């Protein structure tokens, strides 16, 4: 009755060369990177100097999960969980089932290891990226006090936030991105299953529609306010920028070398209010033109904004002092930039019939201060009338690993 | 400052021939149909004998909205709303902005007509399908008592349902399907905006991952229990089956000719419980093997189940008496079949940390009795231990229209 065992491996025959990079054991140079959006790779190597899912071409769908360790979990539980997660993630990202037995190969008398809903689906460029929250390093928990990166602390309060606990924090996080949402959901679901008894889901976020690009060869997408977003992103082909703004060097904690910090913010957008704003005001708030995404100082999308240009029509700066693009721009924030990797979300309607929708902001930064500085600048942002930060979390993202190693083994 | 107006029309240049079919004014034979999954069309004609989005190849994403007319809305409001929705839908499905002025062409001093987040995106096979709920025809509302199809009544109660008002009912519905979720969400958002003051959203459903196929050339997808679903669907290339099981002939209400009934059910799946069931039992509950989707009586996915086959191992029928495939099968239900078009959904986790996930079941039927009969059979389904129906709605779906006509004009 359990005939017809079907393996996801069949898909690998088609893309063997790319997939093989990840299992050679050494660091695959630039493994988790995609400078050429066309053709899009179907398998992203799991092993490498950095974790995949950071500089990887931004996939179309996200399923993000924050976990808390169970109240009785021990240091050994954490260690074994990370080892088990690593094994599973290495398989899943390569289009395999979660174990060798998978959904149908374990025989009739036990629950299948793999939940099966991704059988027959291609790997869809699945990446699985792990991170550790500040609470994981708290005293009297797992003996990791001395392994905490100095900068891994809860984010400070910012103007206009209305944070909810149910969208915030977490001991651990997993970011799963793929070009098919079922593949991303399958990954988180199976990793959650593996965690049973050791860690449990604290909150999750489904995102569709990337709002960022990590390569100029990908077109800049639009957010739910209809504007191009993330034009000034750190691009994955600029090693100098990545070294400056994204990768930790391990001088604080060696285990963080080649890693990064991940800032996650759930930003509700007040869609109906925004939709009643006249075009000129929308553009003044954002500081860009809506059609092309060009700064209001002139040019095209990738023209650098010129904050000194004066508009006679506006009787002041062409790019208003309280516009989003001015306040967020690196030149106004000591040069600070981030690698953004956010997604739009839509979750039905609230009790007033308004859309529950917005931006799930994800940024990878070498130091949380990059985010903190910009976010403080944004206190004056006229966009604040139309957005609310309702969730917040920060995680330290360890560096990549070789085959045979476990994510976070440097913690122990 | 509003330079750089950008039209979605540019995308049309690439697929002009297909798009043109929809604007010739006559019925495009087989317009809303796709018998060849490869290559997948990018533009689906809006006009035709039937509404698109029924026999159309099942797109990858769904955004479904149920609306109630506002308490003060008049018959004229309803009529004008349907006319405005028709105009917008005809444009949106062809990859155009919602009006000729769109997101950037209306000048700086008014809110843009189009919310803009789909600018630059291809049409992605967007279809927009309208339906009318029983409450729209109630006495003392819009004078439509005599236009109500006899069979358009609330569905009866079924075993094991736990229906919630916030996922059920509605005066009107719009099903938007597309291969890019942002395109489907953009459509519903802009149609909701148009409705302001006349109708408001009652509930919505985001679906990803089709769980059905309307053509054998599309592979059968898997539901969140990891099984192939919808194998016995009515296929869009079988005119005889469509005439028997899907299309209304208008003998009851002429305005329903070429239309159908749409049954929507939100079915929560108890994922964690299911995942603890051993493989043999999962297969016995479903009545199919998990790997290939073959019936337990033998063969392959598309082999007809043989309910008379006896299994010595099971000491009874190979396909158990209380299995889902037996109880749902046409031969056990007077031949009744449905055109299913459902989607998986995942909406985070509940207070117990369990997945809020399941199937948003959509079926188009010539008569609601097709659904009612099968659902009554399913009272004995052993799958009921693992699912809960939490939302329910029924709509009459009018036939297709010619260019220049409005959806539902036959009501007035």
Automatic annotation (TrEMBL), chains A, B:
Protein's name in the database: Deferrochelatase
Keyword Lyase appears in the UniProt entry: yes
Top EC class for this record: oxidoreductase
Main location: other
Cofactor: heme b
Localization annotation: Cell envelope
Sequence ranges assigned to domain Dyp-type peroxidase C-terminal in this UniProt record: 220-400
UniProt catalytic activity: heme b + 2 H(+) = protoporphyrin IX + Fe(2+)
One Pfam family linked to the record: Dyp_perox_C
Domain Dyp-type peroxidase N-terminal: start-end pairs: 51-208
Similarity-based family: Belongs to the DyP-type peroxidase family.
Gene for this chain: efeB
Cofactor note: Binds 1 heme b (iron(II)-protoporphyrin IX) group non-covalently per subunit.
Top-rank lineage group of the source organism: Bacteria
Primary role: Involved in the recovery of exogenous heme iron. Extracts iron from heme while preserving the protoporphyrin ring intact.
Keywords: Heme, Iron, Lyase, Metal-binding, Oxidoreductase, Peroxidase, Signal
Signal peptide positions (record): none
Region spans: Disordered: 96-118
GO terms for MF: lyase activity
